[in-house]
Amino acid sequence: MKHPQNPDSAQQATSVGAKYLAIAGPTASGKTAAALAIARHYPVEIISVDSALVYRGMDIGTAKPTASELVTVPHHLIDIRDPLHAYSAAEFVLDARQLIDNIRARGKLPLLVGGTMLYFKALFDGLDAMPGADAALRAALASDAAAKGWPALHAELARVDPVTAARLSPNDSQRISRALEVFRLSGQPLSFFQQRHAIENMVSRAGNQGAEALISLEPLDRSWLHGRIAARFDAMLAGGFLDEVKALRARGDLAPDLPSMRCVGYRQAWEALDGSSPMEDLRDKGVAATRQLAKRQITWLRSMPQRHVVACDEPDALRQVLDLVNTQTATFR
């Protein structure tokens, strides 16, 4: 299918040497609409930056682009994993870099769109040189937690890595496990790797300003976003979200501790179907969890100094996005 575009804008996008554009924002901030608006004026291909959209069979609860949206402009990194298998930030960076090169070689402009801020940070700043996952050690930590409870392992983490422990909830099982795993494998706390990387990144950025064009959709009025989140979750429920989760559960090989099933909405639906949480509370719990996700996403965005903010709740937000694209494709190399 031919994609609509303004010829002059298209020529500008491919001739000025912009490496890629990125649109980031919290959930329900209008990223898909902004991306499709750009696609109407520029010859882009979209690279999804979303840790949930990678999974097949998870369509309603991830607000995956519709079939018509997917054929309007080429999309990448959607439906590339079975929910049984994890997809890491390291894999994303390798895939995204290859896609950026391939899309540019086709004379198109790569447009990265999503809300998984860890993926954006890994792409922009590089990956920390820390130990990879160790399945046996993770199993041992899970066994310890089953016997002692995650607060006890959090206390252990506080003894060896107080910096990391201070920013984690005593029940944040995933991050506590990872931090203890890193310490036991390397003898160094997780915070050591993160601090070292921050220093190295400051040095590298001194000669690399403006390497990414990042447009950040952020609401002026948080209640506007909360309303959209609630409306989206209601639409998901009306659209068959529970049936989607039932089908995933019926496979028999998925479990609630898998990264795919820990996605916001899916975790709450799984618990409701298990009976560990009242079904009548699903809507409120799902909306509350999504609001917390949006809050974390905005916090991540505010730590990215290269971002160009567009107030997504303003009536002319899409025009502002297009204006930024016009200027940034001419200045980012």
Summed up, what is this model?
Helix 3 (67-72) links the parallel strand 2 (44-49) and strand 3. By secondary structure, the protein is α/β, with parallel strands linked by helices. It has helices spanning 7-15, 31-39, 67-72, 89-105, 117-125, 135-148, 150-160, 162-166, 173-186, 190-206, 222-238, 241-250, 266-274, 282-302, 317-331, and strands at residues 21-24, 44-49, 75-76, 109-114, 213-218, 307-311.
Give the key terms.
9% strand; alpha/beta; globular; 333 residues
Strand residue content: 5-15%
How would you name the oligomeric state of the polypeptide chains in this document?
single chain
Tell me the helix content.
Answer: 40-55%
The termini sit apart by: 29 Å
Which regions contain 5 or more consecutive residues with pLDDT less than 50?
Answer: 1-17, 205-211
Query: Count the helices. How many?
Result: 15
Structural class: alpha/beta
**Main β sheet profile:** 6 strands, parallel
Choose one word for the global shape: globular
* Main β-sheet, spatial strand arrangement: 3-2-4-1-5-6
State the order of secondary-structure elements, H for helix, E for strand.
Answer: HEHEHEHEHHHHHHEHHHHEH
The count of β-strands is: 6
Radius of gyration: 21 Å
Explain the overall architecture:
It is globular and about 60 Å long. The chain is 55% helix and 9% strand. It contains 15 helices and six strands. The chain is of the alpha/beta class and 333 residues long. α6 (135-148) packs across α7 and α11 crosses α14 (282-302). Strands 3-2-4-1-5-6 form a six-stranded parallel β-sheet, sandwiched between helices.
